[in-house]
UniProtKB/TrEMBL annotation:
It holds the Pfam family fn3. It comes from Amphimedon queenslandica (Sponge). CDD domains: FN3 (cd00063). Keywords: Repeat. InterPro entries: ECM_Regulatory_Proteins, FN3_dom, FN3_sf, Ig-like_dom, Ig-like_fold. Residues 320-412 form the Ig-like domain. Residues 232-321, 419-500, 502-603, 923-1012 form the Fibronectin type-III domain. This is Fibronectin. PROSITE patterns: FN3 (PS50853), IG_LIKE (PS50835).
Amino acid sequence: MHDGICYGNGSYFWDNHVNAVTEAISCVIPGTNLTTGQWVRVADPDDPVDCNSNSDSDPFHCTNVTSPANLSLYLAQSLPAAQEGWYKCCLPTDCSHPNTYIIFANIFKYAEIESFTVAGLSSDMTVYPQEYKLNCTKIGHTSYSISMSIGSTALVNYIGCYDQFAICPGTVLVSSTNTIRYTVDITWDGMNVSSGSIRQSTTGDQMYQCVLDNIGGADRIRTLTIKVPATAPSSLTEINKTATTITVSWTALDSSDADGYVINVTSDTDTVQTVQVEGSSNNTITVNGLRVLTTYSITVRAYQQLLGPASSTISVQTSPVINSINWTLASSITQLNNTQYRIDCLTTTDIDPSTDVYWLVNGVMKNNSNYSSIDVLTYNNTLLVYPDPLGESVNVTCIAMIGGVNYNQSVILHAPSGPPNNVRGFILNANSIKVNWTNSSEINGYVIEYTTGGVTRNVVSTSEDELVLPNLSPMSTYTISVYSYIDLPSVNSTVTVLKFDVPSPVTSFSVSNVSTTGITVSWTIPSSDNYVTYYTISYTPSCPQLSSLNETVSVAPHQSTTTYSYTLIGLYSGMNYTITVRAGNVLGGSDPSFINENTLPIVPTGIPAGYLFLLQPVNNLTWNEVNCSQRNGLVIGYTVIISNSSITYNLTSTERYIILNDLVFGTEADDDISMQVCEPYGIHKTKLSEENEGVYDECQTSPEDVYEHSSIRPTPIECGLPGATLNGGRWIGPSGAIPCGIGYIQNVQCTTGSGANLSVFINPANGFLRAPGDGWYKCCLPTDCSDPNANIIFANIFRYAQIESFTVADLPSDMTVYPQEYKLNCIKIGHNRYGISKSIGSTALASYTNCFDGSNSCSGTVLDSITNTLRYTVTITWDGMTVSSGSISQSTTGDQMYQYILDNLSGGDDRTRYLTIKVPATAPSSLTEVNKTATTITVIWTALDSSDADGYVVNVTSDTDTVQTVQVEGTSNNTITLNGLRGGTTYNITVRAYQQLLGPASTISVQTLPGI
């Protein structure tokens, strides 16, 4: 108590106001009796105030009252600066007693800072920026200066204050004690403290100072700390979100560094929410009431008395009401208009799916009755739809409502714009049909439905544009429908009907374009329900020495034309041919269709073979019948010319004899008639050797095989360069340069002609080509062969017979057809007697001995009868392990090496040709499944080197049925996805490399995922 006024514990008292006993500071404890109470300077607790005496070290006196306990303190002299400060009053006992009561008072000289406090700190940390006040209260002497600062930055500074004149803008609280409050308004934006125009950046706790400058006395300083987190919460992360909520978390600060947190949510530049979370350990919050599919920026700050710095901002977009809509095939696509499609619409759990979700299917509303919870955030709403009708797309829309707003997503199940085109069936073998088609639009696969007798036998699907239907019944008619599908099936294609039988006979069989050596035949192909892959044309000449010939022509099934024509060539002139045509497929040939036609005649070459006989006494002149196979046609008559120097007779006969009656030549005796007829009158028959077969007079290409017996012995080979002049040109053969000129004795010689012309021929004195001259010749014109600018023509001149070529034909480009078939064609030219064989390794595929071209005893195909050029063909079947021809088979691996040997029977050198067909030696390794769904399987294998493969064939079977066969071109393309499979089905997958033929296989088994 002072001057009758009660003051609180810790009050300040100016020395000028406590310097008389009447102005003493009294401390009283009601209801107690004073015993050993005392005043003690806090700075010197062991030296209590002596109430009865005073000194510079103890300038106070005190009075006391026993009851109630009262102890009053006043200055008995001036207050030295060293004795300023805090004093405590202990009642009713001394200060050492633990139960004594203690009251504090500050006694000072000049002026003092009574308090330095902060005011206006808000408990609502969501208001930002934050504002508060610093209050520094001065008491005592009226003359002073006062300032407040943060760090080295002064916020206010008042100099030369004099309270009587209110020079400084303080607020008077108690005029009697000159108690005045000075206030500074502070704004805190999280990084800067500002007051008016003064601004100071700071981090962490804010340290303020109030300084009071006593003019002539000690300065007074007070500090004030406002707690502010120094760091932002780290690892601000979205941990969950829905259409209207976002949940975030962060790393909590220690309790000494934070009292709680403030989360700020903005969209664009607008603050949407600011949420205060109390407690330093509460580091998770869910922000509610947000907008659907909106991006928000979120920050978090810790706070104590003020907010600390902001964390890194994260952006989070609220989820859509509808997360996604998808469809899956719920049943097999082969069920066509009964196929089920499941639509899954994933929605937020912010809604009630039973009332807030509905569907539109092609504009027709459907209720949402089938839904389930996937997790705490998501409902799965499900709808089953069907393709009704076929060929129309289905648009399904899922609609969800939240806050009175409808949200929707749609999915379209696409159907093809039309069905497949050109659906055709092809008979593969005795119990299989291949169906193929074309499609004009983008599709994902096909469904093939085929029936017989009104009963649907099977429905299958494939992603290829062809399919093999196995296990069929011969002699049945199949109706085949093909549907394409993208997501939904199309309407069915134009139905194709296939009779599973041999073809019907061809009709309208006719002849046109008849020549001396050819006949063109035409016919109408069988109806489209009969599958035709080839026609066999047989033609039998009326010549008894000639055999019937067969030619087989492969054709594309179901050609667009209705007629087919074929020209028979290499026929004999003037010959009657019986021509037969059969249509065929793998099941066999049709009944034959016949026609007869004659080739145009020409004059026969040569003379009748054999000796003439004049039979007496009837003068019957006879000769051997002409072999029509050795002439250019069937001889139908003979002309006999008999003459001497005075008369000539021309007689004709259709028989092999003529009666020479009534001929008048002279008076020769009867026994001289034979000689007179046979010699003087020019009736001669030169015996033909088997080597004399005619003379060629035609241009031949380079290089060319030239048969010496019938070509260059009577008639040279001539090479010429038009418009040039010979300047050292030359023929060069196996034994070197061929001499040109007269008088040379070499076996092969040459002559020159006008311009640049060189002819090579066999020396007539030697008769035949000798062995050293057998082989390749080249003619260099107009200069010799050393001149780089010389023109060079090659020819092969050979003895006996030679192999003109050894080639392979009909190698498949479509490697999906298996087993594979091709032909080996070996063409022989020259001498008409020989032996011939074809083999692979040591296994003979065909062997003919003692062949004689005159009667075609070895069944070759005559290509040119003049040069005795015949083709011998072997048909090969390759099943991946074994080469077979008829009943002969040979296992082999890798490249197939064939050999053709021609045996010259008359002592000449044998001829050998080789042919290699490229086949991969090994199967692709490491065939592995890398992915699969209910309808697809993706496999990969180790690619072979480009020298070992041109591509691959992947075959997919289920049980024993081939589902797909896919050809992959390129040796490096070692991955494929097989589409259009059935869910939950086990497939055997093989891969083979191919070059000219398929190599060995690698196989794995893979089961597709279940459909649902």
